[in-house]
Design a protein that fits this description.
- There is one protein chain.
- By secondary structure, the chain is of the alpha/beta class.
- It has helices at about 1-5, 25-30, 40-55, 70-80, 95-105, 130-135, 160-170, 220-225, 240-245, 255-270, 275-300, 325-335, 365-380, 390-400; strands at about 15, 65, 85-90, 110-115, 145-150, 150, 155-160, 175-180, 200-205, 215-220, 300-305, 315-320, 340, 350-355.
- It has two domains: about 15-20 and about 275-395, Aspartate Aminotransferase, domain 1 (Alpha-Beta Complex); about 25-270, Type I PLP-dependent aspartate aminotransferase-like (Major domain) (Aspartate Aminotransferase, domain 2).
- The protein is built from 14 helices and 14 strands.
- Strands 2-10-9-8-5-3-4 form a seven-stranded mixed sheet, sandwiched between helices. It has a three-stranded antiparallel sheet with strand order 11-12-14.
- Helix 5 links the parallel strand 3 and strand 4 (about 110-115).
- Helix 3 (about 40-55) packs across helix 10 (about 255-270), helix 11 (about 275-300) runs antiparallel to helix 14 (about 390-400) and helix 13 (about 365-380) packs antiparallel against helix 14.
- It binds pyridoxal-5'-phosphate.
- Pyridoxal-5'-phosphate (PLP) binds near residues 70, 96, 149 and 183.
Length: about 400
Amino acid sequence: MLTLDFHPTGRHFLQIPGPSPVPDRILRAMSLPTIDHRGPEFGALGLRVFKGLQQIFQTRHPVVIYPASGTGAWEAALSNTLSPGDHVLMYETGHFASLWNKMATRLGVKTEFLGLPGIDGWRRGVQAGMVEERLRADTQHAIKAVCVVHNETSTGVTSDIPAVRKAIDAAKHPALLMVDTISGLACADYRHDEWGVDVTISGSQKGLMLPPGISFNALSPRAIEVSRGAKLPKSFWAWDEMIETNKSGYFPYTPNTNLLYGLAEACDMLLAQEHGGLPAVFARHERWGAGVRSAVKAWGLQIQCADPSVYSPVLTGVVMPEGVDADRVRKVIYERFDCSLGTGLGKVKGRMFRIGHLGDCNDLTLVAALGGCEMGLKLSGVKLAASGVQAAMEYFAAHEAPTALRTAG
Ligand code: PLP
């Protein structure tokens, strides 16, 4: 890596909200020799990862795995359920919701992009009341799907998905509910079946602690039913052959074998009962989020998410004072302290940077990353009210982790 020439010792701090650092245990699992994906051993691996994924998505129904980034899984969700000219309701929470909306338009779907005006919509979660009102007005049921992003990675806002389900039900509307939890899965609580989601989209490079390269669609029986009549062109993304072949642990085309080794390991790590299983995963992300926000508040800086009820446990957007370019500050932190932070995307470019607190991190790596931020902010001439590092240390010391913190064995 380029930075190794620059900082020859220690590890680079990959503090972006995904790809997140890959634990050594997963890297080791992925280094095993690639096997025949149609041979006798592969089926057992396939069945193992499907079982683990069902537990992580909290579903009893099929989870499809694509050798693609999250964008591919977005396209799979749309192309398996919709026909040309179908009308869908999408909600503008931020940059990723906007990209998904753009993709739907390019695929020949008519989208209606709801949201609060201006930057405000990028500081709050999905307003379920707006969804309900729009669906009630659609008495002919022209709208075929409601598409929302659970954890908006561009802003650090985690929307209330059960509230969106309730809104659809209250309007007595048959639209499918499709949810992108690419950066929420295995960080923030997420329940595909219980929350009545029809298609959940996710990816490998965030809470699952894998490198980028595989992505997922978790399905409901109704989504599978609807897919039989959907007319958007698809072949690589088609669920039918995937679901059929996956039943025996195999794939219709060559899967990403070594990433599946890593995925099997990640499932074991996340679900390990001795470490508290998924409840402990969610609790430690909540706690890291609270610790990082205590730092931002102590600095006297604003958090991009303006509604504390939807603060993201995955990342925090830090807004710069007027006149300070967030990307310039990021550059100082990267060059001086070997720490990568997330850039501002779309409408918030230059306004904020993002600190990822997900996956394979712990209190001390976060305190160190905040140290890099604090030094970089000061070097960039940003006036800080107090030490955020001190505030985070006090937070972590005062709030003992509910269960074992380490994920890696
Ligand atoms: N949706 C969300 C919420 C994301 O965070 C990302 C990527 O960061 C994507 C979609 C796009 O996924 P990918 O970049 O893996 O194609």
